[in-house]
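Good morning N.,

You mentioned wanting to compare the apo and holo forms, so I went ahead and generated the holo version with alpha-L-arabinofuranose. This is what I fed in:
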Amino acid sequence: MKKAIILLFFVINVNVIVAQKAAASIVLNVDLSKDTISRHIYGQFSEHLGSCIYGGIWVGENSTIPNTRGIRNDVVAALRKINIPNLRWPGGCFADEYHWMDGIGPRDKRPKMINTHWGGVVEDNSFGTHEFMDLCEQLNTEPYICGNVGSGSVEEMSKWVEYLTFDGESPMSKLRKENGREKPWKIKFWGVGNENWGCGGNMSAEFYADNYKRYATYCRNYGSNRLFRIAGGPYGDDVKWMETLLKNVNSTLMQGVSLHYYTVRDWSKKGSATDFNESDYFTTLVKCFEIDNHLAKQITIMDKYDPKNEIGLMVDEWGNWFDVEPGTNPGFLYQQNTLRDAITCAVNLNIFNNRSGRVKMANIAQMVNVLQALILTDGPKMVLTPTYYVYEMFKVHHDAALIPINMKSPSYQLDGKSVPMVNVSASKDKNGKVHITLVNVNPNQEIQVECDIRGADKISKGFGRIITSKELNSFNTFDKPDNVVSADFNNFEVTSKSVSVKIPAKSIILIGLN
Ligand code: AHR
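and this is what came out, ligand included:
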């Protein structure tokens, strides 16, 4: 009897242990790389919205906050560390009501306007074209300017391109020189409107496609400058908009099409950025993973109309959208940023990497103080969010060769739905080093992951990094900036052909191999 009880106790415990163990297996096909992960997937977005530009980036030359020609030094220094490849500006919805000529010349003479989209505040145009180009030069990043289709004219857009990029004698180059810039700038990425099915003019797809051709025709290539013109594309899985555009415009006029998708629980009930339970977290995850299906659908249409893959898919707005922080202006979209944001950021970036055959750019919304920001500021104070640390960790993938992956992962299930527990991408850099970024989205359970590194020469252990924290809703504050940061991670074994790693619950990991 005693023996039977002991045996029963043992069986029950073994079962509990077995039930608790989760395992995934991954094959990295190192020799089958064919696509490059464009560094532009790690792009940023800064709109004249809330305190993204004013306060977050631009403080003016007379500010007591340390600045270079009016641009905050602390924000620039933090962003330089993560090598941001491009910066989209001035919107968003703001782009289609922005008149660039209001933002040049002596600042005290620039007209003021109402920012009707974002809080109805006064926009004094003190941050305009020259200030933005200075910011890009300070950041060592490529500008991505979005022109006004909704309320602007073909002439206005065409003159902006001329003002920025023409080296000869013309009215616009003369004006630029009078405003202090002798030599033209180089501009590659040029957006022709934003969300033109909505805030950018409420157009039909047919009407926009026709207009796109008019606007894009007069966005000229001056001298050696070559524009990469990007059409205002669809939202989510609206393939009708994509199809209409591609049927009507080809790659001579359009080098990219944008796609927007926000991870939102419910547009009328977005939920708090910091006060949420596991079910809310799970809903955010489900919505986050949906982007992969949207990309698949859009890419199918692009493959049909652009089989030579000459037009890039540019996910130039994406990220988590929650309720604004209590007590802040609802029009300013200021939200805190937790480990949950870091996890969905890493999932999105892995998804974009894996689709880099067609996805050539992505821009998280937005860089500072708005939506899923990398940086939050308050007067002279600045804090880096958990999302920032994901960009820091993932920069190893910039312009590296994508490694195709096969994966078998258990799912993380709740409320009758499921998502894969492990999410991954991998790349080989120009020095032949392999980097793997892995996410365990399950907040309750660690997972054992076995990676078979096939098609590579002998590998050896390099380094590991991890982002995690005690709670899913841990976040960084001005007083406690280190609640969610990245740290060294050593809990993995490497043989000449494999990696074995135990990923803690709710964590993001980078493994570097030599
Ligand atoms: O990023 C905030 C807004 O979201 C952008 O201005 C607009 O393009 C989108 O709807």
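The CA atoms of residues 146 and 402 lie 29 Å apart.

Happy to go through it together on a call whenever suits you.

Best,
F.
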